[in-house]
Specification:
- By secondary structure, the chain is α+β, with helices and mostly antiparallel strands.
- The protein folds into three domains: 1-106, Phosphorylase Kinase, domain 1 (2-Layer Sandwich), CATH 3.30.200.20; 109-354, Transferase(Phosphotransferase) domain 1 (Transferase(Phosphotransferase), domain 1); 362-371 and 384-548, no CATH class.
- The protein has helices at 55-58, 60-78, 112-116, 123-142, 194-197, 204-220, 230-239, 250-258, 269-281, 341-352, 408-422, 487-497, and strands at residues 12-13, 17-26, 29-36, 41-48, 88-92, 101-105, 145-146, 155-157, 163-165, 172-173, 427-432, 437-442, 449-456, 460-469, 505-511, 522-529, 532-538, 544-548.
- The longest helix has 20 residues, at 123-142.
- The chain has twelve helices and 18 strands.
- It has an eight-stranded antiparallel beta sheet with strand order 14-13-12-11-15-16-17-18.
- GO terms for molecular function: protein serine/threonine kinase activity.
- Its EC number is 2.7.11.1.
- Residues 368-391 have a biased composition (Low complexity).
Length: 552
C-alpha cells in the first residue's frame, strides 16, 4: 500500500475514482465497482471499451456515434430524478477522440437477470418489480425519454428489493437526432416491440411491451417468442401471437392486454399501474383501460383498430398474422446497420429475403432453385454468403440424402459437412430445413462468439456475413449425444398434437442449454401454416418435454 492508503496496483480514473472490482460487461465496455476518493463512497463506473481498440482508425464515424451514445446516456440519466432510476454522479470526458466514463450510484443487489437465474418469480413479486420499473418509465416518458431496451439485465435490485432501471445508452430523447443510420435495429430482439422490429420509432407503448414481455419471462421461466436463432426470434415477434401464460395467475390477463401488436390497443401507463397494484395486493381490479396514442401501427397486412380513451374490456381481435406474400425477384434492402445491431438486423433481412424463386411457403426440397442469386447486373451475390478457405465444398456437399435433410441421415450429413468444412464442433444453434441447414458455430477458444454458416446439398457449406455473440445465459453444445433417429417420430407427434393442420413449413432446431432458466440442451420440431406456429421440445434422446400447440 502507498502512504495515502491506496493500492498502487489499482487503476484510478480522473485522479479520483479507484477501480476495485469488475461488476460486469459486454461487447462495448465494462462496469466497475469503484471508490470515490474525494467523497469516500462506493460508486459504479462504466468504462466504454469497444471490442476493437482500433475502431476510431478504420471507422471514425462509428467511434463518434459510440462516444455520443455514452454522452446521451449521461444526459438522459441527468434529466431523471427518481428512486427507480439509477442516479448519475459524474462524467469523465476527455473530449473528441476519447470515450467518456460514467460514474453512477452503486446498486448492490444484482440485476433481475441474476434473480431469475434462481428460478421464476411469483406473480405478486413480478407485479411489484413491474410497478417499480413502470414508475421509472413513466418518469422517463414525462421527460421526453424512451428507454428502448427494457430487459432483465437492465433492471438492478436495491438491497431493500426496489428495482432501479439503468442503461439508457440507446434511449430516444425528444428533440435530438437519431444516433443510428437508417435501417438500424438497436435493442434486444427478445424484448423489442413489433413496431420497432418493423422499423418504426415505437414511442412509449413500445417500452410497455418490453416491460410486459420481461414480466412474462419472469413468471413463466421462459420467453414465449424466443426461438433457436435471432432470425426466428425476430420473425416470431413480428408474426406470431403471444401464447397465454400458464403460471401467471391474475397477472396473465394484465400481460396479455399489453402484449398486443397494435400499440394503440395497449393500456395506458396509469391503467397498467392500477392493474399491477391489484395483482401485487392480491385483489385484481378492473381490466386495464386502453387509450389512443400517436403511434397507430398495425403489423403487416392487418388493419389498425381505433381505440377510444377510457374504454374497458378485452383488446380488439386482430386477424391472424401472416408472413407477407413474396414473388420471384423480390428484394428487401437493409442499410446502415451498425454496432451491436448487425446480427439482429441482418438476421431479419435473411428472414425476409426469399431463398429462391417461387412460393416462399413451400417446404419440399425441390421447391427452390440451388443456383446462386444474382444482382440486377447479373453478378453473384457471393458477398452475403461468401465461400472461405475453411468453409468450402465438403466431401458430402453433393450427397442429397433420400427424403431431403429432414431425415436422420440428412441431419447427420449437414452436421458432418459443417464440421468438415469449418473444423468446429461446438454449436450455438443448428436449424435444419428440408432443403438446407444453418448453423452458428463457436469461434475457437470462445464461449460467446460465433460465425454463421449455411449448408445446401450440391453447393456445400458457405460462410454467412452474420457473426455475433450468443444470448446471455445460453451455452454452446456439442452434438455427440443427440439421437437424430427420433426426429421422424417427433414430427409424427407434432402433426397430431400441435394444431397445425396443413403445414407449409417444417424444421428442426437445436435448443441450447441455458443457465438463465436452468434448462438443458435439447431439440425442437416446428410446424408452421398461414395461421400460426406450433412446436414441441425434446431432450437429446428424443423424449418430449414440452408442447406448444398453435392457437385454435
Amino acid at each position: 500500500m502507498s502512504e495515502d492508503g491506496r493500492d498502487p496496483a489499482r487503476r484510478v480514473v480522473d485522479g479520483r475514482f479507484e477501480l476495485e472490482a469488475r461488476l460486469g460487461g459486454g461487447g462495448m465496455g465494462t462496469v466497475w465497482r469503484a471508490r470515490d476518493l474525494v467523497l469516500h463512497r462506493l460508486v459504479a463506473v462504466k468504462e466504454v471499451r469497444p471490442p476493437d481498440r482500433d475502431l476510431a482508425e478504420y471507422d471514425p464515424e462509428g467511434a463518434r456515434m459510440l462516444r455520443e451514445r455514452v454522452l446521451r446516456e449521461a444526459r438522459a440519466l441527468a434529466r431523471l430524478d427518481h428512486p427507480n432510476v439509477v442516479t448519475i454522479h459524474h462524467v469523465v470526458d476527455g473530449g473528441e477522440g476519447t470515450y467518456p466514463w460514467l460514474v453512477m450510484e452503486l446498486v448492490t443487489g444484482g440485476s433481475l437477470a441474476d434473480r431469475l437465474e434462481r428460478g421464476p418469480m411469483a406473480p405478486a413479486e413480478a407485479a411489484r418489480i413491474g410497478r417499480g420499473v413502470l414508475a421509472a418509465l413513466r418518469a422517463a416518458h414525462d421527460a421526453g425519454i424512451e428507454h428502448r431496451d427494457v430487459k432483465p439485465a437492465n433492471v438492478l435490485i436495491r438491497p431493500d428489493g426496489r428495482p432501479a432501471l439503468t442503461d439508457f445508452g440507446i434511449a430516444a430523447i425528444r428533440g435530438t437526432t437519431t444516433l443510428t443510420a437508417t435501417g438500424s435495429l438497436i435493442g434486444t430482439a427478445d424484448f423489442m416491440a413489433p413496431e420497432r422490429v418493423s422499423g418504426q420509432e415505437g414511442g412509449a407503448p413500445a417500452d410497455l411491451w418490453s416491460l410486459a414481455m420481461m414480466l412474462y419471462t419472469a413468471v413463466e421461466g421462459r420467453h414465449p417468442l424466443r426461438r433457436g436463432t435471432t432470425v426466428a426470434t425476430l420473425a416470431a415477434v413480428l408474426h406470431e401471437d403471444v401464447p397465454p401464460p400458464v403460471r401467471a395467475g391474475a397477472l396473465g390477463d394484465v400481460l396479455m392486454r399489453v402484449l398486443v401488436r397494435d400499440p394503440a390497443a395497449r393500456p395506458t401507463a396509469d391503467a397498467l399501474d392500477r392493474a399491477l397494484t391489484g395483482v401485487e395486493s392480491g385483489h385484481p381490479g378492473a381490466a386495464p383501460q386502453t387509450a389512443t396514442t400517436s403511434y397507430p401501427l398495425a403489423p403487416p397486412g392487418q388493419p389498425t383498430v381505433p381505440v377510444t380513451h377510457g374504454t374497458f374490456g378485452p383488446p380488439p381481435v386482430l386477424p391472424p398474422a401472416r408472413r407477407p406474400a413474396r414473388t420471384p425477384g423480390h428484394r428487401t434492402a437493409l442499410l446502415g446497420v451498425t454496432g451491436t445491431a448487425l446480427a439482429g438486423a441482418l438476421a431479419l433481412l435473411w428472414w425476409l429475403l426469399p431463398l429462391g424463386g417461387g412460393d416462399a411457403h413451400k417446404a419440399d426440397s425441390g421447391d427452390r432453385p440451388t443456383t446462386p442469386a444474382t444482382t440486377p447486373t447479373g453478378s453473384s451475390t457471393a458477398s452475403s454468403a461468401a465461400r472461405t478457405p475453411d468453409a468450402g465444398r465438403s466431401q458430402a456437399a453433393d450427397a442429397v440424402p433420400a427424403g431431403g435433410l429432414l431425415t436422420p441421415d440428412g441431419i447427420r450429413t449437414a452436421i458432418a459437412a459443417f464440421e468438415e468444412a469449418t473444423g468446429r464442433d461446438r454449436y450455438a444453434d443448428l436449424t435444419v430445413y428440408p432443403d438446407h441447414a444453418s448453423a452458428q458455430l463457436m469461434v475457437e477458444g470462445s464461449d460467446k462468439k460465433y460465425d454463421s454458416y449455411t449448408y445446401r446439398p450440391g453447393r456445400g457449406v458457405e460462410k454467412d456475413i452474420i457473426s455475433g455473440t450468443i444470448i446471455s445465459g445460453d451455452r454452446p453444445v456439442r452434438l455427440d449425444g443427440f439421437d437424430w433417429t427420433k426426429v421422424p417420430g417427433l414430427f409424427d407427434q407434432a402433426e397430431k398434437k400441435l394444431n397445425v393442420d396443413k403445414p407449409t413449413l417444417r424444421y428442426v432446431t437445436l435448443q441450447p442449454p441455458s443457465t438463465t432458466f436452468d434448462t438443458p440442451a435439447g431439440m425442437a420440431v416446428y410446424l408452421t401454416d398461414d395461421y400460426g406456429t406450433g412446436y414441441l421440445v425434446a431432450d437429446p434422446k428424443g423424449k418430449v418435454t414440452r408442447l406448444h400447440p398453435a392457437e385454435d
